[in-house]
Amino acid sequence: MLLALLAAFSTSLPAQETISQEALFQEIYEMDSLLFEGFNNRDIETIKHLFSEDLEFFHDKTGLTNYNQNIELLGDNFRRGNSPKRELLKETMEVYPVPGYGAVQTASHRFCHLENGEMDCGTFKFVHIWKKKDGQWKLARIVSFDH
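Above: the chain's sequence. Below: its structure in token form.
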């Protein structure tokens, strides 16, 4: 009986694109690179395109923010001209499929910005939940911690 229920449940789930772990890792690495190329170049339009409109950003110091709040905060930060830069520590990156939805990316990254005429840098951990819809990846959830 339990096996019949599990079989019925699994057939009602959306079909998951078959992709190797290596290919998924590369796709997410490329999406991460696009997103933070936009960040490092202060290109808010690229970021808008890669963020899901239902974005939720959980930060261990500043709390929960949504898509509109993040676009506004990033725009303000870019206009201040403090030259924010982000570097992914690729050797820490792991990617896991989420069947019927997308992927989970975990890693550490290094952020630097200009403060009082000097670069201030720190290394932090994050989790990104990427959603793939109609063949396009969008960043839907961000968890940033260990600040």
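The domain at 20-145 is CATH 3.10.450.50 (Nuclear Transport Factor 2; Chain: A,).
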